[in-house]
Amino acid sequence: MPSSPREPRDSLRLGIHVGAAVTALLLISPYVQAVVAPAYILGPIVGTWILIWHRGQSLDYSDGARVGFLSSFYGSVAAIALHHLARRAEELEIWSIENLYLLPPLLADLGLEGESVGDWYLWMAQLVILTIVAGALGAPSGVLGVKLFSKAEH
User: Fold this and answer.
1) Residue 3 forms part of a structural domain
2) If exposure means fewest CB atoms within 10 Å of the residue's CB, which of 9, 30, 94, 153 is most exposed?
């Protein structure tokens, strides 16, 4: 039964999660942050590799594109959230034991209220741009991963 375009099949979730983790780690690493293309290429390729070689699944190109897009999109959102959280934690000096009580309210308020209307528009612009980049780089990278790691089925 073909998967619906809105929700990924359960069998693709591991590849999406692993690819998103790789994408997020590459995006928050200090040296790759300046050039984002490796994160959007390597994350989806690792996601498809996990599904094809580790789990022994066969993927068609549409599944590879789905894994590529969703893993790069979710990884980007996670990287942006971690970046904002780290910046706020640094401002509040949460690493000291005396200020540790500030962590739960920080996590509860994260993303609910912006400091200004401009911050909200900046966040929305970031989401639109990363959706376009995830589609432009992530989906073809997922298809490339299927092409590279499939066993001569395609």
Assistant:
1) no
2) 30
- With vertex at residue 45, the alpha carbon angle to CA 76 and CA 141, rounded to the nearest 5 degrees, is 75
Which residue type is seen at 45?
I
Is residue 5 assigned to a domain? no
Separate counts of helices (H) and strands (E) for the chain = 6, 0
Cα separation, 140 vs 72, in Å, equals: 11
Residue 60 within any structural domain of the chain: yes
Residue 11 DSSP label? G
Q: Which helix (H) or strand (E) holds 57?
A: none
Q: Does 1 map to a domain?
A: no
- Tell the burial category of 92 from Cβ atoms under 10 Å away from its Cβ (0-12, 13-18, 19+): middle
Instruction: State the pLDDT at residue 15.
Output: 92
At 94-122, the pLDDT tens digits run 777 777 777 777 666 655 455 677 877 88
Q: Enter the pTM of the model.
A: 0.78
Q: Which domain holds residue 127?
A: 10-149
